[in-house]
Write a structure and sequence with these properties.
Structural class: mainly beta
Strand content: 25-35%
Number of strands: 14
Number of helices: 2
Low-confidence stretches: 1-42
Helix content: under 10%
Length: 199
């Protein structure tokens, strides 16, 4: 091999080696095309990408406050007691679940709380209630009549109802008269949620 040929081969090997880092000259080597074909530069097609959409709650996940409507059913009185079903209804387009005790508080017309938060009634184990769209779960709200128990009473304007494991409450107008707010036998009690709209 002539000296000129050897120099050409050496130059080709140097261009194909590693490198290509910052500040180095970039070079590429294109192998000869097979006989009868021509070498063509290949370009990858552009792929359109869309940003991921915000995650949506999956079916069967916990019901959130924004998906529920609260209401209070009719009194089912007995033995000096007043008993109301507090109902949560799924108004979303997905199936979701509730489990355990809701939160509750009575407010006056100035949104000041009347009396302590209701106590949780023991004796029933929480169950997971699955709510298809339009279905409901209820918890019992129970207290002794103030005129019977002798407890101090007040007339609320609103009942706040907070779904289990949520922080934002729902507001329900309270039209059922006085409730006990202090003194002996003034406790208001709540049961765990069960399927349906009442007993």
């Amino acid at each position: 091999m002539s000296a000129a040929g050897a120099a050409a081969v050496l130059g080709l090997l140097c261009a194909c080696g590693g490198g290509g880092g910052a500040g180095s000259a970039s070079a590429s080597y294109v192998s000869p095309a097979p006989s009868g074909t021509s070498a063509q530069a290949s370009t990858a097609p552009a792929v359109a990408t869309t940003p991921p959409s915000p995650a949506q709650p999956a079916a069967g996940d916990r019901c959130h406050t924004s998906e529920l409507r609260a209401s209070v059913g009719r009194d089912d009185p007995g033995a000096g007691q007043r008993n109301f079903p507090v109902v949560l209804t799924n108004e979303s387009g997905r199936t979701c679940t509730v489990r355990g005790y809701p939160g509750a508080a009575f407010l006056d017309a100035s949104d000041r709380q009347l009396g302590p938060d209701p106590r949780r009634e023991p004796g029933s184990d929480p169950v997971t209630v699955t709510l298809a769209p339009g279905r409901s779960a209820w918890a019992g709200l129970t207290f002794s009549r103030p005129e019977v128990s002798g407890a101090e009473s007040a007339t609320p304007a609103t009942l706040l109802v907070t779904p289990p494991d949520e922080r934002d409450p729902l507001r329900v107008p309270w039209t059922a008269g006085t409730v006990p707010v202090s003194g002996n036998a003034s406790s208001v009690r709540l049961t765990v949620l069960a399927p349906g709209t009442g007993p």
